[in-house]
Amino acid sequence: MQRLSREQMAMRVARDIPEGAYVNLGIGLPTLVANHLPKDREVFLHSENGLLGMGPAPAPGDEDYDLINAGKQPVTLLPGGAYFHHADSFAMMRGGHLDICVLGAFQVSTTGDLANWHTGAPDAIPAVGGAMDLAIGAKRTFVMMEHLARTGESKIVERCTYPLTGIGCVSRIYTDLAVLDVTRRGLKVVEIFNDLPFGELQKVTGVPLFD
Amino acid sequence: MIDKVSASVEAALRDVPDGATVMIGGFGGAGQPAELIDALIAQGARDLTIVNNNAGNGEVGLAALLKTGRVRKIICSFPRQVDSQIFDGLFRAGKIELELVPQGNLAERIRAAGAGIGGFFTPTGYGTELAKGKGTREIGGRMYVLESPIHADVALIKAEKGDRLGNLVYRKTARNFGPIMATAAKLTIASVHEIVPVGELDPENIVTPGIFVHRLVKVPRTVTGPAGFRQAA
Question: Which residue in chain B has the smallest CA separation from A114?
Fold first, then answer.
């Protein structure tokens, strides 16, 4: 099985982000999507700590830690961007004003339940941040993750075993093997990468897929 | 003449009582009022409940306050960070209580307190373990969770510039929780890097009107350092 690299996954997600979209890219893998948005496409990136119109990382030496993203990394503000306080920022999310939110995940269920904030391990210190607000707030929630966990099992499951972030909130799943839409009938295959036969994809996926 | 300017951070923090709920602004290092936290440590109030997005970074600011053992409980959304070792240790030793709140609920609960709202229904967290035991309601075909306001005795916030009336403007994303925390506390104390004459702040651009601010104190301008920083994926 030939899998997409993380950059290739980011490139594939970026292709589906249209001109004029207001988008929040979650911490981790989704952050890479920003590097692949075409320069001629006007897309507004939102960061939940109070920033719309987020630009790329500053040049070395120009870092300003009063201007950071949700991962607390220094960023820049594009012309036309704005700062606002936390309640306004989460109104943009919860209020359905963002077009797309891209999140990483531990597991996604066939009905679009998302688990991405906590492994539930007894010694783990729980931290949720904006994950639950992001999951349920945007018009469309994309998940971007490896198809299989490091231990080999499918991260796409009938029912999440990790603690839930949101119920029925995921609209589309991008993995390193395929793109899947969450539909009323279950998971519909939109695209399979690198000519992997449908049967092979089905075999490694924990739940039934349809074409 | 109204003059909310305190002569020093010590004077501004002089009367924080034991057992107080203290909101502290900031997201990681941005907007964290380090000088006010240091003054709170020196002042010595104990048995505190702290409201902040995080639970301290490194060994300074909020982390240093936690280290004193005077914080009974923290209400926050994201305690675990690469440099949250002080909180991690206290939590694992059972020496601090944690109320974990989704970040948007934290912001809205603070906003609700400041706006006189007795509670609100939010879709965030519905069906998750962070909504366990809370009331729910179906509204327009969607499920919502009943959340309550968070009031504070004291809010410590960092702004960029203010005047003697307490009007404030902020700097970039250091604004974060400052404006909402200012509204939710009985006593709001702001640190600023510059105090300007009344009338100089553009009224169109005042972010926190002085009615929400009780004391402000000038602190030297320092460069915000990295905190809670996570390397790119």
Answer: B128
pLDDT attached to residue B225: 85
Domain B9-118+149-218 has CATH 3.40.50.300: no
Residues in CB range of B211: below 8 A, 6 or more apart: B166
Task: Report how far residue B22's alpha carbon sits from residue B41's, in angstroms, rounded to the nearest whole number.
Answer: 12
pLDDT tens by residue, B193-233: 999 999 999 999 999 999 999 999 999 998 888 887 665 43
Q: Write the pLDDT tens digit of every residue in A11-67.
A: 999 999 999 999 999 988 999 999 999 999 999 999 999 999 999 999 999 999 999
Are B173 and A71 inside 8 Å of each other by CB?
A: no
Nearest by Cα to B107 from B187, B153, B53: B53
Q: Which residues of A touch B92 (CB under 8 A)?
A: 123, 125
Reported as a single tens digit per residue, the pLDDT across A125-184 is: 999 999 999 999 999 999 999 999 999 999 999 999 999 999 999 999 999 999 999 999
Q: In chain A, what are the domains?
A: 6-210 (3.40.1080.10)
What is the reported pLDDT for B233? 39
B103 with A86: Cβ contact below 8 A:
yes
Three-state SS at B50: strand
> For residue B94, which residues of chain A lie inside 8 Å, CB to CB?
none
- Residue B72 falls in which region: left (phi positive, over 0), alpha (psi -120 to 50) or beta: alpha
CB neighbour class for B221 (10 Å; exposed up to 12, middle 13-18, buried from 19): exposed
Which of B57, B60, B77, B128 would you mutate first to test chain A, the one with the most A CBs within 10 A?
Answer: B128
Question: Cα A8 to chain center, whole Å?
Answer: 14
Residue A183 pairs in a beta bridge with: A186
Asked whether this complex has an ipTM greater than 0.90, the answer is yes
Nearest-angstrom CA–CA distance, A12 and B152: 46
Contact list, A67 vs chain B (CB under 8 Å)? 30, 172-173
